[in-house]
Amino acid sequence: MTTSIDTAEPEPAPVLTFARTIDRALVHRAAVSEVLVTDLVQTGPEDFLAGAQLPVGHAYFSDHVRTPVTFDFLLLLEAARQAGVAASHRQLGISRDTTFLVNNWSIRIGDPQVLTPGDRPGEMELAGAVTPVTARNGRVRGVSSSVILRIAGREAAHTRIDVGTARSSDYGKLRFLQRRSTPPLTTDLLGVLRSRPADAADVGRRNPANVVLGEPIHLGDTVSAQVEPLFENKSLFDHTYDHIPAMVLTEAARQLAHLAGIPTDATVTGCTADFTRFAELDSPLVATARLEAAGAAADGRTGCAVAFEQDGAEAGRIALDFTPAPHGARAAEGTAR
User: Fold this and answer.
1) How many domains in the chain?
2) Helix, strand, or coil here: 326?
3) How far apart (Å, rounded) are the C-alpha atoms in residues 181 and 167?
């Protein structure tokens, strides 16, 4: 009896390109300059590989006082978000006329030194999957994406993002029913004066335009501040919104953690966020932070829990883990090539 042996070689891994970005509409960006994803290859019904270029001098993502400099966790999260949205359109057949609403997301970074930039923009590989969430009638009502991010072959982070989906026509009806009124738009609020903002240096920023909080109030072991981003900031509000998006709320949590006592040179190496309702533009949104007890983490990390409240109800909750800067240590050589 002769046994047949399959000698076919496995399919070679796709070679990702970083020469140009993909269509901005696939990642829900208005400006080409805000697109990070450069390539997207389907490797299974739900699986994909994507490439992303990480800028070293972005007006928002690079505006930090940390030393040594690292690619920011929000930059990685945005790259994963873009890859997941693009794969959802291409592989799951979700119409481009669909609004994606972040329900929750998380990121875990094992070794921040992997994120040390070189002298050129970083090239990152994202290996992920997009899984549709369906209603009883079979209609897609959301997408769950999980991604492993690698730089120069080294694992940088894991992300998970769960979103709800709504056709644009249905989205407007949903917002009206929830509010019993039509929500204002960020373009309606351009030029509206903010109250006195938090000090940029105190929240780890150099550019005051990237401050998203008002003046803090300390009470006992908590610190609170109103979320007041600058709607003219096109890195935060690349297109028109009728609410404060998840990315801005996550940045607000990070800034409030610094106001609560986390050193501004510490790096976020973990984030878990749940967004329970829309953060409206026309009502005060207050964030309150509380640090974990000192020494709670054996590896030196410090945690901070931030809750968002609006009109007497919780709008979201974010937990952040910070790793202290390696004081006195020489910055690691760039690994992103």
Assistant:
1) 2
2) coil
3) 19
Spatial separation of the C-alpha atoms in residues 112 and 154, rounded to whole Å? 11
Q: Which helix (H) or strand (E) holds 231?
A: none
pLDDT reported for residue 337: 39
Residues in the chain: 337
Tokens of 24: 């901005």
φ, ψ for residue 151, nearest 5 deg: -125, 125
**CA dist 35 to 26, 51, 85, 192, 263, Å?**
10, 11, 12, 28, 30
Q: What is the domain extent for residue 263? A: 183-327
Report whether pLDDT(334) > 60: no
Q: pLDDT per residue over 240-287, tens digit each?
A: 999 999 999 999 999 999 999 999 999 999 999 999 999 999 999 999
Based on the domain organization, do 89 and 30 belong to the same domain? yes
Q: How many CA atoms lie within 13 A of 329 on its CB side?
A: 11
Residues 6+ apart with CB under 8 A from 113: 70, 332, 335
- State the DSSP string of 296-325: -STTS-EEEEEEEEETTEEEEEEEEEEE--
DSSP tally for the chain: helices H, then strands E: 3, 12
**Separation CA 85–CA 69 (nearest Å):** 28
Q: How far apart are CA 71 and CA 200, in angstroms?
A: 19
Nearest to 126 by CA among 161, 162, 94, 98: 161
pLDDT bin (cut points 50, 70, 90) of residue 111 is confident
Helical ranges in the chain per DSSP H:
73-92, 168-179, 246-259
Within a domain: 6: no
Q: Which of 305, 321, 323 is nearest to 270 (CA)?
A: 321
